[in-house]
Specification:
Layout lengths: L24 E3 L5 H14 L9 E4 H8 L6 H12 L2 E7 L5 E7 L3 E5 L2 E5 L2 H8 L9 H4 L5 H11 L10 E2 H8 L10 H19 L2 E10 L2 E11 L18 H9 L3 H11 L1 H13 L6 H11 L7 H5 L3 H17 L2 H14 L3 H10 L7 H11 L12
Antiparallel strand pairs: 1-3, 2-6, 3-4, 5-6, 7-9, 8-9
GO molecular function, one term: DNA-directed DNA polymerase activity
Protein name: RepB family plasmid replication initiator protein
Family: Belongs to the initiator RepB protein family.
Length: about 400
């Protein structure tokens, strides 16, 4: 993960020059984009107690919302969790005494869903490695949501941990294929195909989407490419603050409100760094005012991710059927979360083009899909996009 404050480190981690391979952990297997996102959210949720607890829990609906897919689709969640339990994580590194250590573990030792709660665990050996801030880089959830390609997210994950050294170092092509999940494919044994279908598209998406810029370089024996490395520098247009540089935010009132709501320490600091205290406060005020929200953390995540504004003060007072209206909004937000980032952008532009006047467009620009002035139009739009989405809510005007 990212560097954590030195006063929180103990033992060997307090030394200024502990020699460890940065690229200590490689995840094998052909993880889907959804599984990669799920793995990152589960790790972020568990990180604070990774070595002190043997089991971790997260509300299943909150988990789905944070990843960005329909929170009622438990079968997809089960399939993704099954994939993580079947995926192998391997490490090869130097320990504190300079001795070589190799190990292997399933990415999750187990996972289960019961009563709306997702419970999961890591093997003790893997938990120890993942908790080392010099081994694993924190993947910013606001950045990972933007990725639409599993290869691009995999490349980002494996390069981001090297951002402070400026280069990944040389990777043999067979290792790179394994990191990208294309090992075993005869098609990608040819570098020409690997470069055209995996490397170039993934680099382009990382450079366009994330907070780092990559430049690939190759090494040859004769005419044959044998190794690959990536030069890395920060993307000044999409740079995101290091959440651990903001130790002072732990003492602020907004941080305390987030923690009181059940948000983990790391996620609270990430949201404050990415969105700022004013925006988080506004979203908190709105979420805490809602009476029919089952998962306020998940609802807050949806609000921050979608840049939804607080509804007008008069909405609650004039709402004759608040339960139905809240249910309608919940279904619409879930439909929005289930769309890819590209689809969401297209949805917003399409809806804006259908609004009749400047006042309606201004309200939607400000409040997004929670726009009180456009509530009826938004409902009609999403019912047309997903027939049956609002079934049973016809009484809401």
């Amino acid at each position: 993960m990212d560097e954590i404050p030195r006063d929180q480190l103990t033992g060997a981690l307090r030394r200024g020059a502990v020699k460890k391979h940065v690229a200590a952990i490689h995840v094998s297997g052909k993880l889907t984009l959804l599984q990669r996102k799920l793995s990152n959210v589960l790790l972020l949720n568990a990180y604070d107690t990774l070595t002190s607890r043997t089991r971790h829990q997260i509300d299943a609906r909150t988990l789905c919302l944070m990843i960005g897919y329909n929170s009622n689709d438990m079968e997809t969640l089960k399939q993704s969790l099954r994939g993580l339990a079947e995926t192998v994580a391997e490490w090869d590194m130097l320990d504190e005494k300079g001795q070589q250590e190799w190990g292997v573990s399933s990415l999750l030792s187990y996972a289960k869903l019961k009563g709306g709660i997702c419970e999961y665990a890591y093997s003790p050996a893997l938990a120890e490695k993942l908790h080392d801030p010099k081994v694993f880089a924190l993947i910013n959830l606001n950045i990972q949501r933007r990725f639409t390609s599993g290869h691009a997210l995999a490349l980002y994950e494996n390069c981001y941990r090297f951002v402070r050294t400026g280069s990944t170092g040389w990777w043999p092509l067979d290792l790179f294929r394994r990191l990208m999940g294309v090992d075993g494919s005869s098609y990608y044994e040819t570098f020409k195909h690997l470069n055209a279908k995996v490397i170039k598209p993934a680099v382009a998406e990382v450079n366009k989407t994330s907070n780092i810029l990559l430049t690939p370089e190759t090494r040859k024996q004769g005419r044959v490419v044998t190794d690959l490395r990536f030069r890395i520098k920060e993307n000044p247009q999409l740079a995101i603050l290091d959440i651990d540089d903001g130790e002072g935010m732990r003492h602020g009132p907004v941080y305390a409100r987030l923690r009181g709501l059940g948000v983990s320490d790391r996620l609270a600091r990430q949201w404050l760094s990415s969105h700022g205290e004013d925006q988080v406060t506004a979203k908190l005020d709105y979420v805490e005012s809602r009476k029919n929200v089952k998962s306020k953390v998940g609802y807050l995540s949806a609000a921050l991710d979608g840049d939804f504004g607080a509804a007008a003060d008069g909405e609650a007072a004039t709402d004759a059927v608040p339960n139905l209206r809240a249910e309608r909004l919940r279904r619409i937000l879930e439909a929005v979360k289930a769309r890819t980032p590209t689809q969401r952008d297209a949805d917003r532009r399409l809806f804006l083009s259908q609004l009749p006047d400047g006042k309606a467009r201004e309200d939607f620009t400000r409040h997004g899909w929670m726009s009180p002035l456009n509530a009826a139009r938004i409902a009609a739009f999403w019912e047309e996009m997903s027939p049956g989405l609002l079934a049973g809510l016809e009484e809401v005007s």
